[in-house]
Amino acid sequence: MRITSWNLLHGQPIPPLSAGPSQEPLAAAVRQLETEVIAVQEVDYKLPRSQMRNQVCDIAAAIGGKDWAFAPSIIGTPGEKWRKLSAADSRIVTTEGDLLEGSYGIAIASTFPVIKWHRLELGNSVVGMPLIVPTESETSSKPKIRAIYVHDEPRLALGATLANGWTVFNTHLSFVPGVNLFQLKKLKRWALKIAQETNTKPLILGDLNLPKNLPVAGSDWKSLIQQNTYPSWGAKIQFDYLLTHGASDDFKDLGTIATGISDHLPLRAEIN
After folding, report:
1. pLDDT of 132 over the 80 cut
2. Which helix (H) or strand (E) is 206 found in, with range?
3. CA distance 72 to 44
4. Which of 157, 163, 248 is nearest to 206 (CA)?
5. Separation CA 168–CA 118 (nearest Å)
6. What is the pLDDT of residue 58?
7. Domains and CATH numbers, the chain
8. d(Cα 163, Cα 116) in Å, to the nearest integer?
9. 93 exposed, middle or buried (CB, 10 Å; 0-12, 13-18, 19+)?
10. Whether the predicted model's global pTM rises above the 0.85 cut
11. What is the DSSP secondary structure assignment for residue 186, as one 8-state letter?
């Protein structure tokens, strides 16, 4: 199984373009990854800034996958106007006919049949933090940088039990120190429970917002790839991971690809 984790930054080119992301450059970038399963974070669902596209549906088409799911963390656009999910909002979207409003969250697309989808709420920090974000640059291939104060949005995990014996868990944890560790601990317990119930092997992927070794320190989980992933134009730190628990050592690091999209580099591996 060739698998990828990628914080997508809603498909925004780097340096960012005032026109925002568009469908074909994103699809072309995904095709470069040559993946069979992809877990994406910071993905848009029918938002104006990304041309009202269902981005995970576009991503599924790019990899030739029939099964996909989008799990919203908020309704609306982060950093602008948004709200938490209500009881009436879909928690997992798997068809184009869903009436969910424009939203933002995480998603999985797979060329392997998905037997069952799962969702776990992880909560959010009550405080925000100043974060570095890329902005347009007219004179350089590198973006300009600015700091903005960001309120933490609700976090979650999306799981896909695949027909190949794996259950893949995608997440984007809080950027607030301590909160992300608490969320990861909760996710690990849930992943093991689901894996036991489905008789599958668990694989946690995503942007964990934790530096090297912290996601596996003091545990029997293993980080498959040691690769700096942020920022994409000169990666200095690893925030993105593929974690296994008691699974085989039979895997291959496929290396990252600078696609020109997002402030994160994708992680790619082949796992048997």
Report:
1. no
2. strand 201-207
3. 9
4. 157
5. 10
6. 97
7. 2-271 (3.60.10.10)
8. 9
9. buried
10. yes
11. H
